[in-house]
Write a structure and sequence with these properties.
Elements lengths: L9 E4 L3 H10 L6 E4 L14 H6 L9 E2 L5 E2 L29 E3 L2 E3 L6 H14 L28 H7 L2
Parallel strand pairs: 1-2
Antiparallel strand pairs: 3-4, 5-6
The structure holds flavin-adenine dinucleotide (FAD).
């Protein structure tokens, strides 16, 4: 594609959850925005991609190596496409808890505390609940953190197979 006007107010590199959300937020400002994406266009809907294709056959797994701090190659489960990994992801939006931002001692090492805390992100999480139409129960959970607004979408019923497990 030939881009004849090279002047943009904002250039967003990557069209995944991060880039896509930023573009959605900035769109009403009227700013001239260019989205750049190195990956392919997957013509099928996310819901049409089968788990076997994603997880077993690893059809959507980038082939290039990334390198760790010691220069060792590794192959992260990631894919480059329009929509980023949200094109192939599982669509589970987990809600963070206050303690998720604190230091955690794992068996293999220390996960340091975040410089920002739950309350710094809370207004954005509340906005994201609406934008992404997150469904889920909030009551009866002692770890449920503060929300500045009630979350709008109720839980979705379990599928029959999961219902039988949840009932145990
Ligand atoms: C199989 C799978 C299932 C998952 N399931 C879940 C889930 O259920 N719930 C959940 O919360 N998370 C899930 N994740 C993780 C989630 O998809 C990612 O955390 C999220 O998509 C990351 O968003 P992002 O915008 O940071 O990056 P990405 O979605 O990776 O998007 C980045 C995009 O930027 C492009 N890009 C990078 N560099 C350049 C460049 N220099 N020029 C042009 N384009 C570039 C890439 O091609 C890519 O398309 C899953 C991930 C995978 C792989």
């Amino acid at each position: 594609m030939i881009i004849d006007d090279q002047h943009y107010d904002v250039i967003i590199i990557g069209t995944g959850a991060g880039g896509g959300t930023l573009a959605r937020k900035l769109a009403p400002t009227g700013k001239k925005i260019l989205l750049l994406e190195q990956g392919e266009l997957i013509y099928r809907e996310s819901s049409e991609l089968m788990d076997t294709e994603v997880f077993k056959k690893e059809q959507y797994h980038a082939k290039d190596a990334w390198y760790d701090n010691d220069g060792e190659p590794f192959y992260p489960q990631t894919y480059y496409s329009v929509g980023g990994n949200t094109k192939i992801w599982s669509g589970v939006l987990q809600r963070m808890r206050e303690r998720d931002f604190e230091q955690v001692q794992h068996q293999d090492g220390l996960s340091p505390a975040w410089p920002l805390k739950y309350q710094d992100f809370e207004p954005y999480y509340t906005e994201a609940e609406k934008l992404y139409q997150v469904h889920g129960k909030v009551e009866n959970d002692p770890t449920e953190p503060f929300h500045s607004e009630a979350y709008p979408f109720p839980e979705i019923a379990h599928e029959p197979m999961l219902e039988s497990i949840a009932d145990i």
